[in-house]
Amino acid sequence: MAMNKAERAAFDHAQRQLGEARALGWSQLPQPKPLDGQQIEGWYINKHHREVKPACRVGHLTYLGMTLSRYADLADSGQRPSGTQGGYPLYRTEVEALIALRLELERDFATLLQHVDGQLAVARGQSPASRL
């Protein structure tokens, strides 16, 4: 039986709420270990854009959005690709990078929510430790 508009809207709202409740929970995923080495290829996370992309590291420079073969092609043609010094952990797979991104965002959003909860408690005349 087909749903009418009101039923469909209620169903969509319930699905959104369920998805939000799942997303707000701690994922309990194990923290992936970044790769180590002088010439590696992997995935880096861009927390601000909430995405992961391929990258490679040659020596102490990390080349974002570039594979080792692309780096070698540019170097062989005499071009000097621009890289960034350190600071970007690279993960073995896209899945590991996405897990690392999820864990970082969980910590960031938990900190933001804790701050808002503290302000809410103060506005209610409670101590910030009592929160809700």
C-alpha termini separation: 43 Å
* Helical coverage, percent range: 40-55%
Instruction: Write down the oligomeric state.
Output: single chain
Unreliable sequence segments: none
Number of separate helices: 3
Question: What do you see in this structure?
Answer:
By secondary structure, the chain is of the alpha+beta class. It has one domain (29-130). Helix content is 45%, strand content 17%. The longest helix has 30 residues, at 94-123. The chain is extended, with a radius of gyration of 22 Å. 14% of the residues are buried.
List the helices and strands and how they pair.
Elements: H1 5-24, E1 39-46, E2 51-58, E3 61-64, H2 68-76, E4 84-85, H3 94-123
In short:
By secondary structure, the chain is of the alpha+beta class. It has helices at 5-24, 68-76, 94-123, and strands at residues 39-46, 51-58, 61-64, 84-85.
Keywords:
alpha+beta, four-stranded antiparallel sheet, 3 helices, extended
